[in-house]
Amino acid sequence: VDHGKTTLLDTLRKTSVAAGEAGGITQHIGAFDVLLPSGKRITFLDTPGHAAFSAMRARGARVTDIVVLVVAADDGVMPQTIEALKYAKEAGVEIIVAVNKCDKPGATPSKVKENLIRYDLLVEDYGGEVPAVEVSGLTGLGLDKLEETIIAVSEMADIRGDATGPVEATVIESRVVKGKGNVTTMLVTRGTLQAGQVLVAGTTWCKVRTLSDDKGKTLKAAGPSVPVEISGWKDLPSAGDFALQAENENHAKDVITSRIENEKQKESMKSIEEMNKKRIKARELEEATREAAKKSTHSGDISISQETGNSAIELPVILKCDVHGSVEALMGAIAGFPKHEVNVNIIYSGVGQVTDSDVERAYAGKAQIIAFNVSIDKKVKNLAESRKVTINNYEIIYKLLDDLQEKMLDLLPKEEVLVVTGEANVLQMFELHSKSKERERIAGCRVMSGKITKNDMIRIVRNEEIIFEGKLKTFKHHKKDITEASKGLECGMEFDSFNGAEAGDRVHCYRIDKFRRAKLNYR
After folding, report:
1. For 437, left (φ over 0), alpha (ψ -120 to 50), or beta?
2. pLDDT at 44 > cutoff 90
3. To which H or E segment does residue 149 belong?
4. In whole angstroms, what is the distance from residue 55 CA to residue 75 CA?
5. Could you read off the pLDDT of 182-211 as tens digits, one per residue?
6. Would you give the distance in Å from CA 315 to the centre of its chain?
7. What local confidence, expressed as pLDDT, does residue 61 receive?
8. How far is residue 270's CA from residue 21's CA, in Å, rounded to a whole number?
């Protein structure tokens, strides 16, 4: 996070994306071309650094030929650096280390290179084969060397693209755009993509309506390694789906039908497996109960723990995001929250603006809507207000996750803390006869610490055992009624429905304070 990946790319293509990013954090993959002074082009994928976007980083490593691992010279190797390195190694792609922020005071690029050895990454400076370039995204220091290194590595690895044959591409991101409908950012890996071609990805298909580059300029065709935005999808494919060219629409529909049937079969097999697991578990529990009954001589000794239904409090939510990758990242992060006390139940998730139907769905399911990087129409806001449906809109992922945890804490019962506010010793007992001829026993006390307050709870302790808990009936200093007594003051106490106090007893005055939990408990 904040190692300067986007700033580095901004300087390379002489634009400013980082300045417009919420919280300075890349929220989803950005794919774009950079034209070098040499006339050569490099396509960059800018993947997010936030921990929640691990699936995006894995996807970025899979679809690229070279991974540029950006490590800040001041922060050094971070958990996400190690994770990104793992994905790059698993993908079997070439790696270049870019040590960024080398212009900052106190930056130690050599220390970063040394630390990488611990993770089996040996850079050229230490006798390895992995190039490491010292750069500054802010000033442009070393960027020409980084470009040269990328070109050199691609030539050494003989990385080539085939512009002939059926189109093969990978879905980088998918989203709903007003006026365009379902739109995907694709990276062509083979063939040449043109308008009018038919593509199949996952369980949806598309007749390519429009092609445009990362700047919104319309393209006639896109060859290998060209990032392109295309419209014309029947439904949104998932980010990371592999797209293949179909001969025609009928061929595409046949492929989709076959894939949906396969998915249904898999789901059916999965549900059968789950049923079998439940049956085996029930049988094992039955056998365990019988065994326990045989071994036990007393019926009270049998203690078989059985799983009861989930008693967690439900927090129903509807999740709407700008792109499919954001939905994936957020659902993954929410799945990591503890579920034994409060369970965040995502009743619906989707890509695109918050709509009237989302509000109606939330109203029916008593859910709140969480929107991420999407706009909300005034008409939708008005409907939500009339239906009393809460819509929370976010631009920064960690703010969303923090707020969601706060909402979970709000649902939990408050924690109770007993606070002793004062202590008194019973010095002597006095008996009085009232006009109603009832005997009244008054405890003559001296306050030893704190303050005794009439409206607070009272506890009488004798030999470390509590013999009474309740309220004061009367509270006097001499003959005057009082509401409180501080340290050193002598007073008379009559306890409500209790006459058993004796000299030597201790009187505790206390209150119960209720606190909202500070954090969720992870088992």
Report:
1. left
2. no
3. helix 143-156
4. 23
5. 988 888 989 999 999 999 998 999 999 999
6. 15
7. 64
8. 41
For the chain, percent helix, then strand, then coil, each to nearest 5? 30, 35, 35
Region 56-75 average pLDDT: 78
Q: Give the total residue count for the chain.
A: 523
Amino acid at 15: T
Residue 439 sits at the vertex; the CA angle it makes with 434 and 445, to the nearest 5 degrees, is: 95
**pLDDT for the residue numbered 21:** 42
Of the candidates 121, 75, 127, the residue with the CA atom closest to the CA atom of residue 97: 121
Give the phi and the psi of residue 469 in degrees, each rounded to 5: -140, 125
Strands (E), 292-438: 313-321, 342-351, 368-372, 391-394, 415-433
Torsion angles phi and psi, residue 387, rounded to 5? -90, -5
Please name the residues in contact with 84: beta carbons below 8 A apart, sequence gap of 6 or more. Answer: 47, 57, 61, 67, 69
Q: What is the DSSP string of 35-62?
A: E-TTS-EEEEEE---SGGGHHHHHHHHH
Say if residues 522 and 426 touch (Cβ distance below 8 Å).
no
Strand partners, 204: 201
Tens of pLDDT, residues 439-487: 788 999 999 999 999 999 999 999 989 999 999 999 999 889 999 999 9
Question: Bigger pLDDT: 303 or 79?
Answer: 79
Q: What is the pLDDT of residues 150-188, one digit of tens each?
A: 999 999 988 888 898 899 998 888 888 878 889 888 889
Residues β-bridged to residue 492: 444, 476
Q: Enter the DSSP assignment of 521.
A: P
Which pLDDT does position 308 carry in this prediction? 37
- String of DSSP letters for 126-144: GT-SB-EEE--TTT-TTHH
Query: Is 0.70 surpassed by the pTM of this model?
Result: no
Kindly state the tokens that stand for 509.
Answer: 């005055």
For every residue of 154-213, DSSP letters joined together read HHHTT-----SSS-EEEEEEEEEETTTEEEEEEEEEES-EETT-EEEETTEEEEEEEEE-
Task: Give me the pLDDT at residue 488, please.
Answer: 92
* 379 SS3 class: helix
